[in-house]
């Protein structure tokens, strides 16, 4: 677990950093008064699947653009497999899928993917890239005749065709329906099963929860949480406990151990607790008639809201 201002975790120490898939240090990009990216450090080890989460304007796309060498940082450094982004891209080590990246209008899907393949030294066969992205049947179709979700899958084929070690995806499934999204993640599993690295920015928490090994939460250009899904959830305050507790008062509930927030309405209580076991024991001792007890883990959504909703005070 790593939160703002804490050192890089021991498992991603200097040795890992050297062979890191992605190493960002002190990265900063300001647009006038807007601190799009405000000093982030991030090391991604080869083989990790990392979700970059954050509300609109958190700085996810700007970070992705700097990793891809599309935007030059004001300060700090970007390393991709120990190289400059441009170098790593020229070598075909990075595949990218960006929000709304343009597709050549006059070309068919097959020609388009073939064109990108021809720019790389060791591409996979075009048919293979189309198959992996689930767009084989669209090979002869012009890009102007594609739906939004189909375009995204073609962009995925383009990202795969250089046979990259790292895939960087900015909201890859934004225009896809539920079925396409499922298919997309199935293809991604095939890609990551071979030990390759993925960094994807998303608004879909369930995708981060299901697919990522690690979640990096951004807010206002900074990293506010970094860890496994379980760790990020825990960071946001543990569990919610609800019960009917006859005789409970706000004063009594507020002093139960572990309680971070509480609400008392008549006999009904709802508390957020950082230690629900301790809260429950004390609750039972104080109110033996307590009943209908319900304890739920805070979802990633709850964690996301709690970690990203505070007003940024330093901006
Ligand atoms: N080229 C630019 N010129 C000026 N401001 C910019 C530019 N690009 C981004 N910004 C600003 O920088 C901040 C971060 O934007 P960014 O697109 O990186 O956020 P994001 O987390 O990707 O958001 P979203 O989820 O909406 O895509 C925003 O306030 C945005 O308005």
UniProtKB/TrEMBL annotation:
<dbReference type="InterPro" id="IPR003439">
    <property type="entry name" value="ABC_transporter-like_ATP-bd"/>
</dbReference>
<keyword id="KW-0547">Nucleotide-binding</keyword>
<keyword id="KW-0046">Antibiotic resistance</keyword>
<keyword id="KW-0067">ATP-binding</keyword>
<dbReference type="InterPro" id="IPR003593">
    <property type="entry name" value="AAA+_ATPase"/>
</dbReference>
<dbReference type="InterPro" id="IPR027417">
    <property type="entry name" value="P-loop_NTPase"/>
</dbReference>
<protein>
    <submittedName>
        <fullName>ABC transporter ATP-binding protein</fullName>
    </submittedName>
</protein>
<dbReference type="GO" id="GO:0005524">
    <property type="term" value="F:ATP binding"/>
</dbReference>
<dbReference type="InterPro" id="IPR017871">
    <property type="entry name" value="ABC_transporter-like_CS"/>
</dbReference>
<keyword id="KW-0813">Transport</keyword>
<dbReference type="InterPro" id="IPR050763">
    <property type="entry name" value="ABC_transporter_ATP-binding"/>
</dbReference>
<dbReference type="GO" id="GO:0016887">
    <property type="term" value="F:ATP hydrolysis activity"/>
</dbReference>
<dbReference type="Pfam" id="PF00005">
    <property type="entry name" value="ABC_tran"/>
</dbReference>
<dbReference type="GO" id="GO:0046677">
    <property type="term" value="P:response to antibiotic"/>
</dbReference>
<dbReference type="GO" id="GO:0005886">
    <property type="term" value="C:plasma membrane"/>
</dbReference>
<feature type="domain" description="ABC transporter">
    <location>
        <begin position="22"/>
        <end position="245"/>
    </location>
</feature>
